[in-house]
TrEMBL record:
Enzyme class (EC, first level): oxidoreductase
Pfam annotation, one family: FMN_red
Stored Gene3D superfamilies: 3.40.50.360
Sample GO molecular function, one term: oxidoreductase activity
Record domain NADPH-dependent FMN reductase-like: where: 4-147
Keyword terms: Oxidoreductase
Protein name as annotated: NAD(P)H-dependent oxidoreductase
SUPFAM superfamilies according to UniProt: Flavoproteins
Annotated source species: Paenimyroides ceti
C-alpha cells in the first residue's frame, strides 16, 4: 500500500548525520513508497514569540509545512540532539507548527528517527519528539534511535553497515507503512 508520506529532519547542519541516515532510510528501506522529503535546513525562522505571532503572523514556511502535514497520512521525522534535548532549530519549528494549527498534527502516523555518535542514538531528543506528537494526538508514533553513527553507517556509501540495525529498521518501516 502506498501512503502520502512527508519527511523532514530537524537539523540545520549542512553535515547532519540525521539527514544522511534518513535519506539512506528513504532510499534503501522505503523505495516502494512515495515520500516527499522537505529540506528545512535553510529556513530562516524567527524564534517563536507571541509578539511576532500577533504582529507579523506565521512564517510562510510554517504554513507550507502545516499544509503538507495536513494532507499527509504518515510523517517521518528525523531528530537530532543537542545536550540531551531537541536542537533549538527543531524545537522552534515544532513551536511554530503547534501554534499555527495544533490540529494539523493530530491523527497522523509518525516515525521518529534519530542518531548520534553515542550509544543512545539521540534517544532523549527522540523521546521528546515522541511525547510531543502524542500530546498533539498522533494516531501512532513509532521510533528508532540509531546508535554509534560512525560505527554503524558508511558515510562513503551512505548505507547502514550493521545487519542487525538494518533488520530492525526494515521491521519498523514495515510497521510504519502497514
Amino acid at each position: 500500500m502506498n501512503h502520502n508520506i512527508i519527511c523532514f529532519v530537524g537539523s540545520n547542519s549542512s553535515k547532519s548525520i540525521n539527514v544522511q541516515l534518513v535519506k539512506s532510510l528513504l532510499k534503501h528501506n522505503m523505495q516502494n513508497q512515495t515520500v516527499e522529503y522537505i529540506d528545512i535546513r535553510e529556513w530562516q525562522l524567527p524564534i517563536f514569540s507571541q509578539d511576532i505571532e500577533t504582529n507579523e503572523g506565521y512564517p510562510k514556511h510554517i504554513k507550507e509545512l502545516a499544509e503538507k502535514i495536513k494532507n499527509a497520512t504518515h510523517v517521518l521525522v528525523g531528530t537530532n540532539e543537542h545536550n540531551a534535548a531537541l536542537s533549538a532549530f527543531f524545537k522552534n519549528i515544532l513551536d511554530w507548527l503547534s501554534r499555527y494549527d495544533k490540529l494539523v498534527l493530530e491523527d497522523k502516523k509518525y516515525f521518529v528517527v534519530s542518531t548520534s555518535e553515542g550509544g543512545r542514538g539521540a534517544l532523549s531528543a527522540n523521546e521528546y519528539a515522541q511525547s510531543f506528537f502524542h500530546k498533539f494526538k498522533a494516531k501512532e508514533v513509532l521510533s528508532f534511535a540509531f546508535p554509534n553513527f560512525s560505527k554503524n553507517f558508511s558515510v562513503e556509501n551512505q548505507v547502514v553497515v550493521s545487519d542487525e540495525l538494518n533488520s530492525k529498521f526494515n521491521d519498523i518501516v514495515k510497521e510504519f507503512i502497514k
